[in-house]
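WARN retry 2 of 3 for item q-0093 after timeout on previous attempt; input resubmitted unchanged.
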Amino acid sequence: MIDIDLLFRKRIGFPENEKVTFESLDFVLEKTAKTIPFENLCVINKNVMEITQENLAEKILVRNEGGLCYELNTILYFFLIENGFEVTPVRGVTYNPTNQSWSETEATHVINILTYEERKYVVDTGFGGNLPLRPVPLNGDVVTSSNGDFRIRKMESGYGDYLFEMKLLHKNTDWVKGYAFDSTQPVKDESELNDIQKIIVESPVSPFNKSSLVTVLTDNGSKTLTETSFTHWIEGQEFNEGIDRSRFKELAKQFFGMKWS
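OK item q-0093 returned
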């Protein structure tokens, strides 16, 4: 059986013998965001696996790949549970600020709600480059990290009872909607995660089954790879390179450790 706790620690560079405390979750979330890419290569390659604890560990912790929200936050869930935290996965609906519309795939974003000393926090490592890098309380308090400012407000949106908002560093001057979620509706089991994956893989309105995407945060920005471009944000400055399929393979391996068949 795969040791998720040990392998997760090795993947992100967290000391094997150090206790994971609430105070060290900032470090865990930041290292995860900068180590494990948000990517959809298995979806594009039509090579997805059933969502199970064993399969996710094999993919993300043994083969050192990344994944989408329902994979990244689920492997984080298993890691946190093994380290004694009270965590519940829930579903959310993402918001597209460009189109000013909610996702047509509906509640396919998966996050974790962690309870610590009778307070609830969102811990999310599956929202691409929009990650808060630390637990965000559900009481509206603003959390600030190297990636910007983040908050969660109690608000009935028609898509849940809470709204996650962000002001990304160097990108947003005002609060932008990220996603809504229903804190009262936990993900029941792995079959529900597989239903989400099926929508992402098969739905004509899914944004993740059209073209390849790999992105990861860095110490001073982010790196994003698509089939036509490589974008590197450094201290708020954007550096963009147009690429072809051959160059995509090179960059995927060089900067993300990913293999593209």
